[in-house]
Design brief:
By secondary structure, this protein is α/β, with parallel strands linked by helices. It has helices at 15-24, 41-46, 60-63, 84-89, 102-117, 120-128, 131-135, 156-167, 191-196, 217-223, 240-249, 287-305; strands at residues 6-9, 27-30, 49-52, 71-74, 93-95, 148-152, 171-175, 186-187, 200-203, 228-231, 254-257, 276-278. The chain has two domains: 5-98 and 287-305, NAD(P)-binding Rossmann-like Domain (Rossmann fold, 3-Layer(aba) Sandwich); 102-278, 3-Layer(aba) Sandwich (Rossmann fold). It has twelve helices and twelve strands. The protein has a seven-stranded parallel beta sheet with strand order 8-7-6-9-10-11-12. The protein is elongated, with a radius of gyration of 22 Å. The chain binds NADP nicotinamide-adenine-dinucleotide phosphate. NADP nicotinamide-adenine-dinucleotide phosphate (NAP) is lined by residues 77-78, 98, 101-102, 105, 153-158, 176-178, 204-207, 210-211, 232-234, 258-259, 281, 283-284.
Length: 315
C-alpha cells in the first residue's frame, strides 16, 4: 500500500494548485491548522510533509500531531504564521517561496501610491456615476513623480519597490537595521527619522513579533499631513489604532493598504475613510506568480522527499 505522505493545509489553495500538489504525492487535505487534529491517526503517522498556505498560527502542538513530519513548505515568502523555533526543536525544516513574488508585490505597492495620490478609485466612481458628465472635472489630486520615497525594510521586495520609484524620478530613502550598498539612496537609522524625510512611506518588512508595531504614532506624526503610507508587508508592522487615528484626524494625508490586522474581517473604521485605497491582501495574486509559487513550494517538498538540498530553506 502507498502511504499518504503529504498534508495539504489551507482553505485558499486554488483548484489548480491543489491538483498540482495532489498529482505529486498521495495527499490528505485540511482547511488549516485548526483541522489537523481531525486527520485520522493512521494518516497522521505517515505524513512527512505539509504544504501550508494561510495566516493561521501553525505551532508546536499541531506539529506534534505528525510524528514523522520532516518539512513544512510554506506557500508565500512570509512565514510568520509558522512557529519556526518550534519546528527547529522538532528537527522539522521550513521552506518558503521568496523572489518569485517580489515583482508582483512591488507592482502593487506602486499601484497603491498611484491610486491613492491620483484619486484613481474616486475617479472611476466619478466616471461611472455620471458626475463627470454632470459636473465636469473631478477635484485635483497630488503628484507622484519627483517626490521623496522612504522604504521601511530594504529586503527583496523593498529593493524592487525602490527601483520602481527611482524610475518615477523620486529621491530614495530607506531604513534597514544596517546600511546597504546602495549609492545615492539615503539610509536612516530609525523609522521616525525616515518618515520625517519623505512624502511616501512604504512598509516592506517581515511580519511577526520582532516587527510588531514597528511604525508607531510618532512615525506617523513625522510623516505629516501631506504624507502617504503604503503597507504591503503585514498588518502587524504598523500600530493599526494609531494609523486609523492618524487617517481620521489628518495627521497623515492617506494610505494604500494591502494588509491588515484580523484579515479578512478588518476594522470597520477603514471602510469609512475616503483617503485610503484598500486591497484584499492580493500582493502576489497574479495567475503567473501564484503558479510560480506552487511550483517552488512543490520543488521544496520534492527535494525533501528525495533527500536533496531544499531549494529555499528558512531554518
Ligand atoms: P526579505 O528580503 O527577508 O526582507 C525583509 C525586510 O525586513 C528586510 O529589509 C529586513 O531588514 C527587515 N527585517 C527583518 N527582521 C527585522 C527586524 N527584526 N527588525 C527590523 N527589520 C527587520 O523579505 P521579502 O521577500 O522582501 O518580503 C518581505 C515581506 O513582505 C514578507 O515577509 C511578507 O510579510 C510581505 N509580503 C507580503 C505580500 C502581500 O501579498 N502583500 C506578499 C509577499 C510578501 P534588514 O535589511 O535590516 O535585514
Amino acid at each position: 500500500m502507498t502511504d499518504t505522505t503529504l498534508l495539504i493545509a489551507g482553505a485558499s489553495f486554488s483548484p489548480p494548485e491543489r491538483e498540482r500538489l495532489e498529482g505529486a504525492y498521495l495527499s490528505a487535505y485540511v482547511n488549516g491548522p485548526s483541522e489537523m487534529a481531525g486527520v485520522d491517526e493512521a494518516t497522521r503517522q505517515t505524513i512527512r510533509a505539509v504544504a501550508y498556505k494561510g495566516h493561521h498560527p501553525f505551532g508546536g502542538a499541531e506539529m506534534d500531531l505528525f510524528p514523522n513530519l520532516g518539512v513544512i513548505a510554506n506557500y508565500g515568502v512570509g512565514y510568520d504564521a509558522i512557529d519556526v523555533m518550534a519546528a527547529g526543536e522538532r528537527s522539522i525544516r521550513v521552506t518558503n517561496t521568496p523572489d518569485v513574488l517580489s515583482d508582483d508585490v512591488a507592482d502593487l505597492a506602486v499601484g497603491l501610491i498611484l491610486a491613492q495620490s491620483r484619486s484613481m478609485v474616486f475617479g472611476d466612481h466619478w466616471v461611472r456615476s455620471g458626475q463627470w458628465a454632470e459636473k465636469g472635472e473631478m477635484p485635483l489630486n497630488r503628484q507622484v513623480s519627483r517626490k521623496r520615497a522612504g522604504i521601511v525594510g530594504l529586503g527583496r521586495i523593498g529593493r524592487e519597490i525602490a527601483d520602481r520609484l527611482a524610475a518615477f524620478k523620486m529621491e530614495i530613502h530607506y531604513h534597514s537595521r544596517s546600511e546597504k550598498d546602495t549609492p545615492g539612496w539615503q539610509w536612516h537609522a530609525d523609522p521616525v527619522s525616515l518618515a520625517g524625510a519623505v512624502d511616501f512611506l512604504v512598509v516592506a518588512l517581515v511580519g511577526g513579533p520582532d516587527t510588531l508595531n514597528y511604525i508607531t504614532a510618532e512615525a506617523l506624526r513625522a510623516l505629516g499631513p501631506d504624507g502617504v503610507i503604503v503597507n504591503i508587508s503585514r498588518g502587524t508592522t504598523i500600530d493599526e489604532t494609531a494609523l486609523l487615528d492618524a487617517l481620521e484626524d489628518g495627521t497623515i494625508a492617506g494610505a494604500g493598504l494591502d494588509v491588515f490586522l484580523n484579515e479578512p474581517k478588518i476594522n470597520e473604521r477603514f471602510s469609512k475613510l475616503d483617503n485610503v485605497v484598500l486591497q484584499p491582501h492580493q500582493g502576489s495574486g497574479s495567475v503567473e506568480t501564484r503558479h510560480e509559487m506552487v511550483l517552488l513550494q512543490l520543488a521544496n517538498i520534492t527535494a525533501f522527499m528525495d533527500g536533496e538540498a531544499l531549494k529555499t530553506p528558512v531554518n
